[in-house]
Amino acid sequence: MKNFIITGTSRGLGKALAKSLMEEDHRVFCISRKKDQELLDFAERNSGNLEFFPFDLADSNEIRPLMKKIFEKIDLDKSEGIFLVNNAGVLAPAKRLEDCGDEEILNNLHVNLAAPLILTSAFVNHTKEFKGDKRIINISSGAARKPHYGWTNYCAAKAGINLFTQSLGLEQEKSDYPVKVLSLAPAIMDTKMQEEIRSLDKKDFQELEKFKDYKREGKLLDTETVAEKVKNLLLTGDFEQGELLDVRGLL
After folding, report:
1. What average pLDDT score do residues 16-28 get?
2. Which of 102, 201, 224, 243 has the fewest CB neighbours in a 10 Å radius?
């Protein structure tokens, strides 16, 4: 059996990926702020190999204990592979940096950058002696490479994800049983985050009309399409250690 730990599974890409993996009878551990009943019902109708861990990733001090609980449920001796997808993310605060409160800034960095770093650190430690397939996919964004007016916090965090992925790749090349790591920009998907973007005030986000056009013109990818690409990279895809990929190059 293959074991998957996925953050941000109550909606969007994380939810679609969890469903797709369960259809193939893999075991999925979901980390989200709340349980998703639709996903639980889906698990009942399919493999049932799903465990939810309601958790707020802004609570950085409790991430390692959480990962300890998850790994206590995984028998690595019987596992064909162990995988982590750092998918959870928040856009807010989406406004000029000087208009952001300290707590807003810290929450964005905790969820978007600190949490993936700590989750990954714990994952690598728990799997150090595991000789099977180990992979981590960090969900990045085009905002990691291009500045956006009003998205300073989000852009900074996602740029951090890319360099963290590349640096970890260098470290893992020196490991006896390396974890393979990848950063993936999932392109613009039809998600709740996109709804949030379209509801922003133009004074806070100057590209508002362009993002509304993406929806009107049908340019948003569905999460199921992207989830299949992520699944393929986890299960069979070949990529360079620490590579930065854009899902559009896989379509």
Report:
1. 92
2. 102
